[in-house]
Amino acid sequence: MVEHDNSLKILIFSVLTFIFMIFFLYMWIKNTQIAYNTQKHVEAGKAISGPKQQINFALNDGYHVTILTLPIVGILIVTVLPLICNILVAFTNFDAFNDEVHLFKWVGFDSFASVFGKTYGTEIWGVLGWTLIWAFFATFTNFFFGMFLAMIINKKSIKLKAFWRTCFVIVIAVPDFVSLLMMSQFFAWKSDPAQTGAFNLIIQQWFGINQNVDWFGSATYKPTMARIMVIVINMWRGMPFTMLSTYGILMNIPEELYESSRIDGAGPVRRFISITFPYIMFVMGPQLITTFTGNINNFNVIFFLTGGGPFMGKSANSPGSTDLLVTWLYRLTVNNSSAEYNHGAVIGIFTFIISSFFALIVFNSSKSVKQEDSFQ
Questions:
Q1: What is the pLDDT of residues 5-46, one digit of tens each?
Q2: Secondary structure in 3-state letters for 300-347
């Protein structure tokens, strides 16, 4: 019995080999340039720097290069290497069967054609649409409600400001694993009254409603209800983060601006539109973009609340009604006995392209970046 070659290990070591070859080529070119410059210095009668001078340069003028070397190496190993391997796996037939025999082969663009065509072509665009809708509402509901919450607490007439802030900060202190799973059980719908969620019991006893409400649509297949619930619960979870950020910004807006606006006859609405909101948006614009990108890949909320469901009438590998691209990728590759690593890699590339667009292009096009000097 001879063990098969492990294609995944061959792929990883091959990528590492190419990285080392590129690094060696770069060092060889730099070494040639240094040798050439040293020769020119000798011919011109100039002094050549020795080891002490080079160490002194590395710790002073070239200190930024010295201190950034280790993080760059870490990025290459932890980020670039997995990214390259993920891209290459998308061009193979790597799945659960091939994982058992440790062998897979190159199939070109067949995996892309399968994801965007015959296998998941009718489903991936629906998942993408819901992912963008989720990211939009998850970002801006948290932003606006958190901003107004901070403005209310910041009002001079409000007493016990520290107490109110602490009440909302407690939500941040509790891990998602605990709070989201608890909310999932709190709104659970069960046919057995003993297993019914606490919220259904409350509305039955307080309002006399004898029928349980299937908040996450797991039993009655109500995808709209499930999607609304995950957005609302995410708002409860995410508002305190925005509240803290906005509260700090409100504390730093010059009071002279408000005094001048009052003298000019501006009311509360005009002061908010002309002073408060532009100031907050300029400072928090980059954070909004990064939050939107983070919500595209927000795994915890969907996974712990609904697990991607409801799944009524769908196959094991098909996306659920609340599945984002990232949670669907997880079920395709990790939480499934018939894992499709090649299809998961394609979805990973697709998600990376979308996230990169918002994280790089939109961020660099924002006023916070282009008009930083004029704002200051």
A1: 889 899 999 999 998 999 999 999 999 998 998 899 888 888
A2: HHHHHHCCCCCCCCCCCCCCCCCCCHHHHHHHHHCCCCCCCHHHHHHH
